[in-house]
Design a protein that fits this description.
The complex is a heterodimer.
Chain A (H helix, E strand, L loop, with lengths): L13 E2 L4 H11 L3 E2 H11 L4 E2 L2 H13 L3 E7 L5 E7 L1 H26 L1 H6 L1
Parallel strand pairs in A: 1-3
Antiparallel strand pairs in A: 2-5, 4-5
Helix pairs in contact in A: 1-2, 1-4
Chain B lengths: L7 H21 L4 H12 L3 H4 L9 H18 L1 H30 L10 E7 L5 E2 L8 H10 L8 E16 L2 E10 L3 H5 L5 E2 L15 E4 L1 H7 L10 E4 L2 E8 L15 E4 L3 H5 L9 E2 L2 E6 L5 H19 L11 H8 L2 E6 L12 H32 L1 H9 L4 H38 L15 H28 L2 H7 L8 H35 L8 E6 L8 H17 L3 E7 L9 E3 L1 E4 L3 E3 L4 E6 L3 H5 L3 E4 L17 E5 H7 L9 E4 L9 E7 L14 E4 L8 E7 L4 H14 L5 E6 H8 L1 H35 L1 H9 L6 H31 L12 H18 L1 H8 L3 H6 L2
Parallel strand pairs in B: 2-10, 4-9, 6-8, 18-23, 20-22
Antiparallel strand pairs in B: 1-11, 1-12, 3-4, 3-7, 3-11, 5-8, 6-9, 7-8, 13-24, 13-25, 14-24, 15-18, 16-17, 16-21, 19-22, 20-23, 21-22
The chains are: A alpha+beta, B alpha+beta.
Chain lengths: ~120, ~900
């Protein structure tokens, strides 16, 4: 019996902002087709366990993205031989990823600019 | 909510697989397998998704229909009277319509069962023919047929691919069982090719059978005749058949289903036209001024009837002139008549339907019935609409509650539609199933005696069935959709508040529908009364002579191998034999049968103080001196025929005539009729040769409506080829029939007796159409009246219910309790009167259309109209009695409490 590694220090983890899950899914799928559980783990792993993904909430997002035809899903078999539904990025999904990334970059830059003012404001 | 496209199950499976994958991974990462699953579930978060689909399962459309149908049938069962009435309306509307229109199709529209009937045309001489005719319909003289056949291509390209003439006749056939009469069609050689009829056995006629007058003793059998009379003998071709005592060679058998061009009789034999005079003992083919043939042609490709007529007309006009040089052309033709003759046209009409012979008379009754049944269907639709509306309104409270509980408009409409669809389905289905019975019932009116020969079948025309069914289904669905719209539009609050108070939704429409029903009921009532009275007066007036104890039969010795002088002797011998029978009171013989719808007719030249020609042809007959006594009619002036009125040389010489009282009234009103000289009005006799020696009471000669003036000649002054015997006995019976046959056999066993019958049956046969119109009319009227009653009852019950508070207030304020009944009754009277006012002009207009079918009653007969209106008002008031009574019993306290 092994102890479970404590990866869920809840206080340190950040709940996802509305709409950011989509971009994370798209980015994750950029690496190749993946099923829902794989996507959830990938987001958690690549974010250094910082981003909290409620696995269940992934599915409405997948559903939404599939409906927008940015991703497409189909049943396949996982590496350990389980039936799973695999998603992959479509061409318009790739485009969307580029657009969303640019928008995210702009948002981050804008956030940074606003947040970076703080010391000056303190100084005044 | 998640999007559509994948099933809930598929999604649940995906999520299940997620949990499994996560569990696997957790175990791989070292989590204890017992814990791993719980942890995977926990990570999944709100795993409610797994337990429960994201929405209620969407039922399949089949389940929805099943559910709606169940609901609809429950709703319908809640209102059994309304449901039954709707179903009855649909069944009768559809059943009767399909039956009548199938008949109408056979009578009015159907093409002959021949190749490309639309290419077939029939020739018709329109204008003054200046001669006589035998037969019905568009008659053409044989020489004209020959000339058209020879000349239709003389003006460029040929107009017709084929052209053929035919005329009907009856012959006596000797079979093993004895002799019997058969229906024959005399046809020219091109006839079978024209209609595209190929023989079942042997051959059909060709131009080779058109060569020698009286020289083609060959016959083709109809498939039915071959089967029923000759045992379907496959080696029949080449054998002999004795027809009119002469051997004919059977050369072919026609294919099944082809019974000639006259659908009103079934042709059993075909003979070459060259045998016409042999069959008929009249009708030499070279006569220019006697016509008895129907001429059909098949148009060439690219030629239409209009062009054919236009091309032939100039040639025909030239022929009209050259025809006047023929020796048969009458002398001294009046100028006006000559102008009419020269203005004649040779019309080329559509001929693919064949002709109807005597059954032409069937056309107007069938048209009337078709119109009436269309009205029945309209009435049924009105009724369905009215009742559907009533149900919607009465359910508005329930609908309101359901809408308040969240039933969607779509849902409510779907349910109403399911109800309408269910009604339409059951009603139409039952109507379709019952249509054959209606068809047989209607046809049973027509299958009496002679008319039974009509080749009408009780078969149902699928198009008619489909059309009537579609109309009913559409009407039902429409009347379902309308209310469904209301149902969907129900504002929950409004409906709940209004319930029990003033639910007037659709009331205006309902009242309008009831007015329509009342109006239609009046139209039917007037129609049924007019036809009923017509039947009654025809029966009451009768033929003008007593029919009980009267029997008749006919002999045609010429068809049994006799020549003219001998046939006269044989007929007189039979008459003397009949007179010797102890049970026979009177016996007589004449040349034409009474009351068979046709006979002998001609215009007459009359010389009183001036010489003139009668306007119209009048019925005539040649009778033996005992005839009037046998019929029981009196010679009122002058003398009866007697032994002096005979001409025993060969040929004939008419010297004396007896005219009817109507003849005197119409043509000799101010002149002593006895001694006046008359003659046949062929157009040119300068000195009439026949003297009027007596005046006889009026009686019907051709049919029961016959009011024409008449002329009678002495049968013994003519050549006698045929004898129609009339026998008056104490009672007419089969036993007497046997004795009569023995008499004929005693004279010569070779002589064939036909049409042996009593006279009562004859009167029934004559009234076939009248009885059909009267009976069906009454049935329709009763149905219409019933529907109007139900309509009025429904509307007034509803009004009484919804006005109970108003009535309560009135009573509370001191109105007499009974006065409320008056309120309802006056409402009923108002509806009925509006209906009557609207319908009277319609009834009158329709009455004018059927005027020719009426007898002894006028379209505007005030008694008829007053009677019908009174009956209708009485029925309407009776229907409103129950609601009125309920209104009268309203207790003010109850009425308020009910709020």
């Amino acid at each position: 019996m092994t102890t479970q590694p404590d990866r869920t220090d809840v206080d340190d983890r950040i709940e996802l902002l509305q709409g950011t899950l989509d971009i994370l899914i798209l980015r994750t799928l950029k690496r190749g087709a993946q099923h829902g559980q794989g996507i959830a783990r990938a987001i958690q792993d690549t974010s250094g366990d910082t981003l909290l993904v409620d696995h269940g909430s992934l599915y409405p997002a997948l559903q939404r993205l599939e409906k927008k035809r940015w991703i497409s899903g189909d049943w396949g078999v996982s590496s350990n031989n389980r039936r799973a539904r695999f998603y992959e990025l479509t061409a318009s999904g790739e485009k969307q990823l580029v657009t969303a990334r640019a928008r995210w970059a702009r948002l981050v830059a804008a956030m940074d600019r606003v947040l970076d003012q703080e010391p000056e404001m303190e100084g005044s | 909510m998640w999007g559509k496209g994948r099933s809930d199950r598929d999604r649940a499976e995906e999520q299940q697989s997620h949990i499994d994958l996560e569990t696997d991974q957790l175990i791989a990462e070292g989590v204890a397998s017992e814990k791993a699953r719980a942890m995977a579930r926990a990570r999944f978060g709100h795993n409610a998704h797994l337990e429960r689909p994201t929405s209620w399962p969407r039922p399949s459309w089949l389940a929805i229909i099943a559910r709606d149908t169940r609901y609809a049938s429950r709703q319908l069962a809640h209102a059994p009277v309304a449901t039954a009435t709707i179903l009855l309306s649909l069944v009768i509307g559809i059943g009767v319509n399909s039956a009548i229109f199938s008949l109408a199709d056979q009578v009015l529209v159907r093409a002959l069962p021949v190749e490309a009937p639309h290419e077939i045309v029939q020739l018709d001489w329109q204008g003054e023919f200046m001669g006589g005719g035998r037969g019905f319909g568009s008659l053409i003289p044989h020489p004209l047929y020959v000339d058209v056949r020879a000349h239709h291509d003389s003006l460029g390209s040929p107009l017709f691919r084929h052209i053929a003439a035919r005329s009907p006749g009856r012959v006596t056939v000797s079979l093993q069982e004895g002799t019997e009469r058969a229906q024959v069609e005399l046809v020219t050689g091109d006839y079978f090719a024209l209609f595209g009829i190929r023989p079942e056995l042997g051959r059909v006629f060709t131009a080779d059978d058109d060569q020698v007058l009286d020289g083609h003793a060959v016959v083709i059998l109809s498939h039915t005749y071959w089967r029923t009379r000759l045992g379907a003998d496959p080696d029949i071709v080449g054998t002999e058949l004795r027809i009119n005592a002469r051997p004919f060679t059977i050369v072919g058998v026609a294919p099944p289903g082809f019974h000639g061009t006259d659908w009103s009789v079934s042709t059993e034999l075909w003979m070459p036209m060259m045998m016409n005079a042999f069959v008929h003992d009249w009708g030499e083919l070279d006569e220019h001024r006697v016509r008895f043939q129907h001429v059909y042609a098949r148009l060439m490709d690219g030629v239409d009837a209009g062009r054919a007529q236009a091309t032939l007309q100039p040639w025909f006009e030239r022929r009209l002139v050259t025809d006047m040089e023929q020796e048969e052309w009458p002398a001294d033709v009046e100028a006006a008549k000559l102008d009419q003759y020269l203005a004649s046209t040779l019309a080329i009409n559509a001929g693919g339907q064949g002709q109807a012979g005597r059954a032409e008379e069937l056309r107007s009754p069938i048209v009337i019935l078709s119109a009436a049944t269309a009205l029945v269907l309209l009435l049924a639709c009105l009724n369905v609409a009215n009742l559907s509306l009533a149900q919607t309104v009465s359910r508005s409270r329930e609908t309101g509650v359901r809408a308040a509980l969240g039933a969607s408009r779509r849902r409510l409409m779907a349910e109403r539609l399911a109800e309408a669809g269910l009604l339409a389905g059951i009603g139409t289905g039952a109507g379709v199933l019952l249509a054959p019975f209606f068809g047989r019932w209607i046809l049973s009116f027509l299958q009496v005696g002679d008319v039974a020969a009509l080749a009408l079948r009780p078969e149902l025309d699928l198009r008619a069935l489909f059309t009537a069914g579609m109309i009913a289904v559409v009407a039902t669905l429409l009347s379902g959709v309308g209310p469904a719209w209301f149902a969907g539009a129900t504002e929950p609050i409004g409906a709940l508040k209004a319930a029990g108070r003033s639910m007037t939704g659709g009331m205006g429409l309902r009242r309008a529908l009831v007015v329509g029903q009342v109006g239609l009921a009046l139209v039917f009532l007037v129609g049924a009364t007019l036809f009923g009275l017509t039947l009654r007066s025809l029966k009451l007036d009768g033929p003008g002579f007593a029919t009980d104890g009267l029997m008749t039969f006919t002999v045609n010795p010429l068809n049994d191998g006799y020549e003219l002088p001998e046939s006269k002797l044989a007929i007189e011998q039979i008459l003397r034999g009949l007179q010797k029978l102890p049970e026979v009171d009177e016996a007589s013989v004449s040349s034409f049968a009474l009351l068979t719808g046709g006979g002998w007719g001609n215009t007459m030249l009359v010389e009183s103080d001036r010489q003139f020609m009668t306007e119209e042809a009048m019925p005539m007959n040649a009778v033996s001196p005992e005839s009037f006594d046998t019929l029981g009619v009196r010679v009122v002036r002058g003398r009866n025929f007697d032994d002096t009125d005979r001409y025993d040389e060969e040929g004939w010489l008419l010297r004396s005539a007896i005219v009817s009282e109507e003849f005197v009234r119409r043509y000799l009103p101010d002149h002593e009729p006895l001694g006046v000289r008359i003659d046949f009005g062929f157009g040119g006799f300068r000195e009439p040769r026949v003297e009027i020696v007596g005046v006889v009471q009026d009686y019907r000669e051709q049919d029961l409506r016959d009011r024409e003036p008449k002329v009678y000649f002495s049968v013994w002054e003519r050549t006698v080829n045929r004898g129609v015997f009339y026998i008056r006995a104490q009672q007419s019976s089969e036993a007497l029939g046997g004795r009569l046959l023995e008499v004929v056999k005693g004279v010569d066993p070779m002589i064939t007796v036909s049409d042996l019958r009593t006279f009562d049956g004859q009167i029934d046969r004559l009234l076939v159409f009248e009885r059909m119109l009267a009976t069906l009319g009454s049935a329709f009227a009763g149905f219409a009246l019933l529907l109007a009653m139900i309509g009025i009852y429904g509307v007034l019950s509803f009004a009484a219910q919804s006005r109970s508070k108003e009535i309560g207030i009135r009573v509370a304020l001191g109105a007499r309790p009974g006065s409320a009944a008056g309120l309802i009754l006056s409402d009923a009277a108002k509806l009925a009167l509006i209906g009557v006012t609207v319908a009277l002009p319609v009834a009158y207009a329709l009455g004018r259309l059927v005027e020719t079918q009426l007898y002894g009653v006028g379209t505007l007969d005030p008694m008829v109209l007053a009677g019908c209106v009174s009956l209708l008002l009485a029925v309407c008031l009776a229907a409103s009695a129950a609601p009125a009574l309920r209104a009268a019993r309203v207790d003010p306290q109850e009425a308020f409490r009910a709020e």
